[in-house]
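FORM 7B: Structural annotation worksheet

SECTION A. Query
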Amino acid sequence: MFPIGDTTVQYNVSDSAGNFNDSCSFVITVEDIENPIIDCPTNVTSNNYIGEGYGLVNVSTDIGSPNATVTWDPPVTSDNSGGLVTVMSSSFESGDMIPYGTHTITFTATDPYGNSDTCDFGLNVEDNEDPVLVCPPNITTTTADGSNRAFNVNWTDPIVIDNSDEDITPISKYNPGNNEFDIGRTDVIYDAVDSSGNAGTCTFIVTVTDPEAPDIIDCPMDIIVNTTTGEAIAINVTWMEPTATDNSGETLIPVADYTSGDNMFVIGDTTVQYNVSDSACNFNDSCSFVITVEDIERPILDCPTNVTSNNYIGEGYGLLNVSTDIGSPNATVTWDPPVTSDNSGGLVTVMSSPFESGDIIPHGTHTITFTATDPYGNIDTCDFGLNVEDNEDPVLVCPPNITTTTAEGSDQVVNVNWTDPIVIDNSDEDITPTSKYNPGNNEFDIGRTDVIYDAIDSSSNAGTCTFIVTVTDPEAPDIIDCPMDIIVNTTTGEAIAINVTWVEPTATDNSGETLIPVADYTSGDNMFVIGDTTVQYNVSDSAGNFNNSCSFVVTVEDNERPVIDCPNNVTSNNYNQTRFGLIVISKDEGNSLATVTWNPPVTSDNSNGIVTVVSSPYESGDIIPSGVHIITFTATDPTGNSDNCDLSFRVQGDFMFVANLVSPGIYMSSIGSGDATALTFTPAIQNVQLTRPVAIDYDVTTSALYWSDVTTSSIEYYSFVKKQHQVLVSFETGGVDGLAIDGIGNKLYWTSTSEDRIEVINLDGTDRTVLFDMKLAEPRAIKIDKVNEYLYWTDWGPGNEMIERAKLNDLNATRTALVTTGLIYPNGLVLSVPDGKMYWCDAGTDKIEEANLDGTNRTTILDVTGQHPFAIDIYKNYLYWSDWIGGVYKVNRRTGISSNQSIDGRLNQPGGLYIFTDNVLTIDCPTNVTSNNYIGEEFGLIQITTDEGSPTATVTWDPPVTSDNGTVTVVSSPYGSGDMIPIGTHAITFTAIGSAGNNETCDFYIKVEDNEDPVLVCSPNITTTTADGSDQAVNVNWTDPIVNDNSGEGITPTSKYNSGNNLFNIGSTDVIYDAVDSSGNAATCTFTIIVTDSENPDIIDCPIGMIVNTTTGEAFAINVTWMEPTATDNSGDTSVPVADYSSGDNMFAIGDTKVQYNVSDSAGNFNDSCNFVIIVEDNESPIIDCPTNVTSKNYIGEGFGLVNVSTDIGRPNATVTWNPPETSDNSGGLVTVMSSSFESGDMIPYGTHTITFTATDPYGNIDTCDFGLIVEDPEAPDIIDCPMDIIVNTTTGEAIAINVTWMEPIATDNSEETPVPVADYTSGDNMFAIGNTTVQYNVSDSAGNFNDSCSFVITVNDNESPMIDCPTNVTSNNYIGEGYGLVNVSTDIGSPNATLTWDPPVTRDNSGGLVTVMSSSFESGDMIPYGTHTITFTATDPYGNIDTCDFGLNVEGKI
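SECTION B. Predicted structure
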């Protein structure tokens, strides 16, 4: 460690003879160019602190000011020099008044050597005070003429006061002198917002009243309607309700004693009156119209819904269904008469057609029509659908059952014969039975078939009968697609073949059945032993016919290898250890070989036969040389199937790997010390296909052999532990000539001659990286110096022949050419790091050479003219190299002596060469220290404390433990046991050097900690007072504490408070100083500063007086709200003014109430300057509940929201009394009530009335309710002048009397109406049938009261004679002709008489009744004598009226 400044370093040396030299010294100058460290304040210490956001510290302005007084702790500084650091700020100091806005305060720290650093402290001064507004008083005005609004109301804008001193203009949605206000109350709200977004508000009220009345528009015209269906009145007559408009813009609805769609009107005229008023009680009753009700409704006729006879079935499709009488095609049907009614209440007559109840009705569908006629001639009809059904089934008699056989080769029999069944049915119809089978033309399948016959009559009644046809089958099935013989292998791991599959044979049969042949083995679900097995298939059909003609042979062969599990260790006593996953075996004592034994492999075979095992190249118990060996075991089962496994181990000792290119392979030989010239090479790996291996290397840490293959363009490896071959890297073209493994770093480096580059990859195949691809021509050999962390390589490219190296941690920057001359083909390279040497062989210069690791001191060891050296490695004092032409050679690297003879001539083109040296040198580092300052261990470090009062620790430890087959020398670096070691972490490296020059190292890690705290001495306590108008004491002074520390460092104590530059709040504040040394040891001291306060608080934002309404339903206002005043105090306390009323939680009686606010701070200072008045007004309407009934005796009941009463007897009015309305008011005062139209006890006319009651409380607030009353008239009218009975004749030529006249009766009624009696016949406009007819007069008033006391009888007599027309000719053959009014005929041949026939006379009668005719002398067909005759016909109608006609006849004789 060197302090800042100049330090001379002196080197001395002396030899074993005591000769001394101190001529070497130099100066180390340490300069401090390191900036000090400065940490800005992270917060402010003044009371106006708000918080942090977006990297800024936020504070608020002082109350009533646009600025903020801000204090903060000074920045914290430190410097590596330990000297005093001075700090300057760029703009404001702590305690300054800083204007509103965002500011960056930059602090600059400068150490004693002029190095400086800065930090920024972002400060945002916010203005959070709201403006205060004073509004004008409330305003009351009226609407403009014809409008619902008041326009252009004037007032003075509010006054705005704000701490920012800004000129703030208040804003509102309403502007004085340019505005519009709707009727009622409008709150005019003014807002004022300062530039910081703080907002204030005030409100005053503009009240607009309305004096104008509404208008009624679209008053309906008079209406004529019919009575409501089924009623003598019209119900729910509808009309377009009139509407109302008003200047107020209200939606007003005119009201009437009748409501459209919800009413009742009696026959006649009724006046409907509409009234309307607006919310200001202005009234309009200018709309009325008349509704006239007429009755034109038909009577109601309900047809019978069922029949009453026993043959009734039910209903369907609108028909009543009955069945025919048993054994008959007809049905006797009876039913109830239809049900009739009429809205008039009169008699309804009914006729039916074409059948009457009790008639015999034929099969089929019939419509029976009923016609109903009411007294007013209105008619109605209904239909009665009747369906007479025939539900009797036909009866069939089938032939007997039949049995037969299939036709040959068929599954059927055809054309079986039988006789059709006989059919009998009640309908007497000729019914033909049907079936899906016809006799003599049919097909029947094997087995039983039911032949079913059906017979259906015209009414769809069905009968059936069945007989059986049985068909038998005598033919056997056939098997087809029988499988061929099958040859299969045994199932894996079994001595049998499991689940052999084949295509199952199928079967056919004349029966058409789906038959499946069966066998004792099933395809896909079976087991067959090794050898031949016959599979037999059989099949039979449902008739029991059998076929076994299908069989085949399944041959099972065993082609499965046996299973062999190799031993995983050796059983001989020379087992040493398992190192890097590989078994290591010691050589026999006094021998260079090892006798090795092992357990035989475990074998098994699916055949369960004997498995023979042979091993290669050694058997258990053989004497095996040094090296890595793979013992391959081959197991063979009785059928010649074989498998193998490997056992790998290493016999202790040194050995060599060589790659051979022409007879491709990698060979191994043990290698001994001394000048032995013979090597015995055996294959190093077996069962791996090699094509042209070149470069090789061995990873001792994983026991894996790596090589490159230029034919396959790959880098591959074989793991002796996993006994696994793997390709690590593949190339598109070319190959790799050099490999170098870093087993510690788990990396593989290689040179690519085809790509001219050097690459590296992790041994797990990841992170392949190109290290060099520039300035390379033909890179070949590559080596790693892990001690010095260098990578070495050779390049034999023409013009680029050289040996280079580069630092592994900075390859490009440290790439250096070591040897650049006298090289042609530098193929092989090897490093001897302990000696500081590198060796190479050159196939162009035919030399073996050496140099220092930095390329200096180059020397030729051996000239090998005539050879082509390729790879080289070092073994103790010898260098071994491979000759591309053939053989492996060695030379003593110390003496250069070589026999120049191949020590193995069996390698015809050796390439890469690697020598493994079995190093037994070990070193174990100390695990702890022996000095008393030991603390413990953590993260692999031994922790030690510094000596008391010193920055160093005196540390001792036990020496490392070593072992070797020779002497061992140990050196440690950079400290030895007992040295004084400075604070910090140190790696102590121990190097063990064997007598053969080999070495091993281990590391021992020590951490020297300084655990002594610094010592601080603080100043005494200080008492002071707040600054005037502030809640703080400013810039209190004291002396910084003194700091002492064992480390000798110059430590500056730190505190959040700085002497002479500070702010302290009221009360006690502990000033704490901290001191921390570079090891993090901390100490502290404290003193107290006491600040007192004597100033009073202020009340701000005192509310102004307000006017409020009473709370709904109460005589006071509840929970009135206002903006609570706030208080400020120099102490910064958040004091809350208190009052006897709280905003939002209070009650105020009607009238004026004073609210008083007081406040005091924590020091007891008092302020009572704030009070205001709350005025409570009652604007709530009283509550009125109308009467719900009347108390007079004419009360009837209620309906449709109306109270119903009857008129006084004989009068059109009703005297009505009721209880007065019930009232209440939130004020508790007297409520007066007025009614709009009638008072209790008034005589109220017939009709519907709305009586409105208005209630007024003591403060002029009003409310109304409506009382609906309907006065009903229950008295029926009287009929006077009812006509007497009348007798008349039929009208000429008619069966009726037409337009009979009489004096119509009249009626009177208490309602003073003039009702008109009505009848089903009208005088002078009528028709009456012969006989007696009663004429009934009825009358009803507009209230629906009815009188039917007037009736009389009209008797119509028929006194009109019938009419008769005599025959005009005769119809017999003796007719001659007519003359002189006579019909002339001749006598019968040979007779004096004539047999005559004639058509009967034609008659008709006005009555439409039967007319009987009598002749006076002869009848048609009589024999009439010769001469002239007059035949008189007399016609008589049903009422005895007669008429006659004459028929003149002249009978002439024939000559």
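SECTION C. Observations
The CA atoms of residues 52 and 58 lie 6 Å apart. The two ends are 194 Å apart (CA to CA).

SECTION D. Sign-off
Analyst initials: ____
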